[in-house]
Amino acid sequence: MANSKISALPIATALQGDESFALVQNGTTKRTTLSDIDNYVIETHITVADGNTINLSDSTYTSSTLIKFTFTATGGVENATVNLPDVNGTNTNRLIRFISDSTFTSNTRVNLTTTNGATIDGSASPYTINKEYEGVQLWSDGTELFIVQKKA
Predict the structure, then answer these.
(1) How far is 23 from 119, CA to CA, in rounded Å?
(2) Which helix (H) or strand (E) holds 34?
(3) DSSP symbol at 120
(4) Cα–Cα distance between 58 and 68 in angstroms, integer?
(5) 65-118: pLDDT as tens digits
(6) Residue 133 gets which letter from DSSP?
(7) What does DSSP say about strands 20-25 and 28-33: parallel, antiparallel, or unpaired?
(8) Of all helices (H) and strands (E), which one includes residue 29?
(9) Which pTM does this prediction carry?
(10) pLDDT tens for residues 32-51?
(11) Sign of CA dihedral 20, 22, 28, 32
């Protein structure tokens, strides 16, 4: 299969983690395995305030696997909305972790909302983060989102 286009190669079966594949790093092609990179985290910091809406479908967040929220509050009950990426297509089997920092209180909320009729654990209601150091990890099966883990 030398000199074949990538699109002409056969589709891989379920990966075990020890298969070798090529990776280009700093302009040099190197060999690695999936198990070498399975814990790779792409961290994104987002500062939110009352009335903000953040769309995680934007290209800025395509590779994000851990999103840390900081809330800029002015007082009273304040809400920000984070629209989750569409669950199908390139987001099938995607895991995303969300955490809040010490700027959160019971009066500051980030509402994680689904798009295109998706649900979180069968619910169309947003998942709300409203306290400091709270976290949730979501996984997409291509149809809906599941809460894999949460910390409160």
Answers:
(1) 35
(2) helix 34-37
(3) B
(4) 17
(5) 999 999 999 989 999 999 999 998 888 999 999 999 999 999 999 999 999 999
(6) T
(7) antiparallel
(8) strand 28-33
(9) 0.76
(10) 887 776 667 788 999 999 99
(11) negative
For the chain, how far is it from start to end, CA to CA, in angstroms? 51
User: In a 10 Å sphere around its CB, with 0-12 CB exposed, 13-18 middle and 19+ buried, how is residue 67 labelled?
Assistant: buried
Q: 55: which 2 tokens? A: 């769309």
> What's the angle, vertex CA 74, arms to CA 133 and CA 66, rounded to 5?
30
Cβ-contact 31, 21 below 8 angstroms? yes
High-pLDDT (> 90) share of the chain, %: 62
Q: Tell me phi and psi for residue 146, to 5 degrees.
A: -120, 140
Which amino acid, one-letter code, is at 91?
Answer: N
Which residues, including other chains, have CB under 8 Å from residue 89's CB and lie 6 or more apart? 142
In 3D space, the residue among 96, 54, 56, 83 whose CA is nearest the CA of residue 71 turns out to be: 54
Chain centroid offset of residue 130 CA: 19
